[in-house]
Amino acid sequence: MFKSIAVKLTSFFVISILIFSALFIGIFTIIFNNYAVDYYKIELNKKATAIAETFSPYLDKTMSKEKSGLGSFMKYLNQMEAIDIWIFDSNQSLFTIGNSNNSKHLNHFEYSDLPDNADEFIKQIFQNELAYSESFNQQSNILTIAKPIFNQENELVGAVLLQAPVSLNNGLFYTGLIILLGSMGLALLVSIILSILLSKSFTRPLKIINNNTLLLKQGQYEHTIAIKNKDEIGELATSINDLATKLAEAEVKSKKEDIARKEFIASISHELRTPLTVIRGLLEAINDQVIITPEEITESHNQILAETVLMQRLVTDLLELSRLQNANFSIANEPVDVLELLNDISRSSTALAAKKNIKLNIEIQIDRLIINGDYDRIRQMLIIIIDNAIKYSYNNSEIDIVLLNDKISIQDYGIGIDSEQISHIFDKFFILENDQKSGTGLGLAIAKEIAERHNFKIDVKSKLNKGTTFDIYF
Predict the structure, then answer these.
(1) What range defines the domain where residue 407 resides?
(2) Which of 163, 262, 329, 377 sits in a 20 to 30 Å window from 176, CA-based?
(3) How many Cα atoms sit within 13 Å of 12 on the Cβ side?
């Protein structure tokens, strides 16, 4: 269960929210404490200012015995909760002390009665170095403020020192913290519910993809993933659909290749069996002395030789075709002058055409044409096509070879090819039904492989008893 992505995502969300909440509470506590300290400073400063203004006329009477009203004000000071007050005259003598628990006034006291570091504040104020001073003890949460006392002539006549504890853990803080924790708890609950729903919505397409992947594993390539998201998951679904399509195509291709391989082996066996049967029959007839006359023996030898030549051609063509079909078999890729190539082919094919009194008409309609490829392979391809044109042409006919900007056209005026057979002429071991000529049936298959290795296109048009045209597009 804990391996589920949905559970992991939900856990990540919850952990992130808890970390955020802890940080938020910490920041809230720091900000609230700082605010509380600042608030106490402002309030204590107001009290110090009020006390300084009140004591200013009393301290300006050069310590007169008339202290009317001072006692009442000291009673008011006694009512200030948890605030310690020290008042000094112009001689820096401690004049009075007042707090909520104790009140001593109209007497003189010693500096030893002051809190820590307070004497330094007072000395700096009377030396006109400070107009206002404060300090806060972080460990004891004690705030101390000192202010000078001036008379109406703006003369320094005394100082007031106030010290009060700062309550950081008061009810207001706890109330705010409880509200904050409650809000965060509610937010956490809502977030958990939303994270579960969002996690499931996120993992749902992944489960669909996983199920379809299992189907692909079982060879069921027809199933597709119906996810159209415009995100990474949608791209993954599209990629898997493309993979399923390619696997299906590869399976079909593999089956076709397997069938073709079996047919190929069967065809080879058949093609080799025929000449071997003839050779064995003739040899057995000679061995059993069925054939005894010198003329019959000579004829048998000639027949055996012809059959062995046919088998040799068959094996050679098979090896040639196998090499061309191998993607690792490299062919040259260099500039080829097509005009020079046609002149070379014309010289080679003229002798074969002359045996049937066939005229080769070569027409060149461009000044020059250079293509990239393997000169010997392109020559082999064109000779195969021209040899077939000569083979299936009538005696005393013509063959037109025309060179244009983008193609070579080879047209004969022979027996032609039936429309049902024309789509099979490039198949291995295919021989026309009315063909009484010798051959392996591999020539045009080799020509097609050479064309495909050069990215050429061969287009064939034919009519029975009218002739055939091969167009080779570069």
Answers:
(1) 334-473
(2) 163
(3) 8
Q: What tokens were used for 116?
A: 């820590």
Are the CB atoms for 437 and 458 separated by under 8 Å? Answer: no
Q: How far apart are CA 397 and CA 399, in angstroms?
A: 7
* One domain for residues 54 and 133: yes
**Residue 34: CA count within 13 A, CB half-sphere:** 6
Distance from the Cα of residue 454 to its chain's centroid: 35
CATH number for 343: 3.30.565.10
Q: Using the Cα atoms of residue 442, residue 444, residue 447 and residue 449 in order, give the sign of their dihedral.
A: negative
Place of tokens 């000529």: 437
**CATH number, domain with residue 284:** 1.10.287.130
Tokens 């070879």 map to which residue? Answer: 401
Is 241 among the domain residues?
Answer: no
Quick check: pTM over 0.90?
Answer: no
